[in-house]
Amino acid sequence: MGCFRIYLTNAPRSTFEDGYKSKKILKQNWIPLKPDSVEFNVDGTTASIRDNGTVLIKGKNQPATYTVRAQTKLRGITGIRLDTVLDDSLPSKGPGRGMFGNFVISKIEVDANPLFSDFSLPKSLEFPEKTVFNLRRKELISNNPFQLSRWRTRYYEETVIPAKAGIVIIDLWEENQCKKLTEIASKLIPRLNKVIQVARKMGFRIIHAPAGGLSYYESSPQRLALIHMKKFHAPEINHPFHLFLLPWSLTGRCECGPSRPCLRSWTSNNFSRKENNGIQIADNDLIIDPLDTDELYSICKNYGLSHLFYVGMATNICVQGHPAGMQKFSEIGLKCILIRDLTFGQSGNGYNPDTDRIDSTMTPERGDSIIVDYIERYLAPTVQSQEFLKYVFK
Known about the structure:
Layout: E1 3-9, E2 31-33, E3 37-40, E4 45-49, E5 55-59, E6 66-69, E7 79-84, E8 131-140, E9 151-160, E10 165-170, H1 179-202, E11 205-209, H2 221-227, H3 261-265, E12 286-287, H4 293-303, E13 307-313, H5 315-321, H6 326-332, E14 335-344, E15 351-352, E16 357-358, H7 364-378, E17 382-383, H8 386-389
Parallel strand pairs: 10-11, 10-13, 11-12, 13-14, 14-17
Antiparallel strand pairs: 1-2, 1-5, 1-7, 3-6, 4-5, 8-9, 15-16
């Protein structure tokens, strides 16, 4: 696709659900949605966003996934409309980028989360003993390497008993070795607090895991509770599943720009590994060393946990790779799930560290989406934080 606009409406679906056939869809109050960003899963493609919300795509015409991120204050949304737009810069004026202005759309997916201005959990709110989460995973549908679409997205339901589940918060430090990543991490905190506030009420065990930051919590009740807990040794895996290296797992360290200035000034001791002060730690939470598999395994055994939901920074390095991370506990046999909008991977910005090339299409957001896609293919399902909040925002 070459040029398009997106509109929203909260009109009753019955007034437009039969679409263009009766022209009813054109009579509603459609509100333009101006994207905050547009990312792609391929190199060589860029987007410009105009003041009226129109998106113009340029670059190599190739199969791609477009990820459009936007915010709106419109409530009760019932419809999303995609309009294609002609533009003189496109072949045959578009609206596609094919030779004759043609294009093909194979699928549209929508993820939605509420915007919070004033959040408080109702005291009378009750949660079911079992909760159904809508998960997302990628499935391989063809072994033919020349087939363009070898993977498909599958959504399915997973029943979780909150009393037998935990949320593991990995390496959301007060500071990061990269200033840009520190900024990104701070933006996750408000939503994370709302999720863990709801999760505690549901019965989830909240587990904080700041690698290198345990000295700040040695005498805290949340740390002492773990130390005094009955110890279990994690089983040795005879035939462990070793995930192929995730994108940028060895190369991504700075996202401040192509010159990667933080790498030049970085040492292991020049930033605080204390968990971000904005994260709420409750009396019944626990604090572990994510570099020690046995600590998290002991919690799982003592509380009978079957599901672990992961959040945190450096999805492709720490969240999946720590001894208390997703890969290890998937090997052990727990059901591990990534909360994809409460994690962020380390990649590059204007520079692709895996190819060691300047790449104007490389953004932190695009890198993160590629990492999430990789995890959904080879390691574990993901979920949106909205799945925890759906009982509050109905």
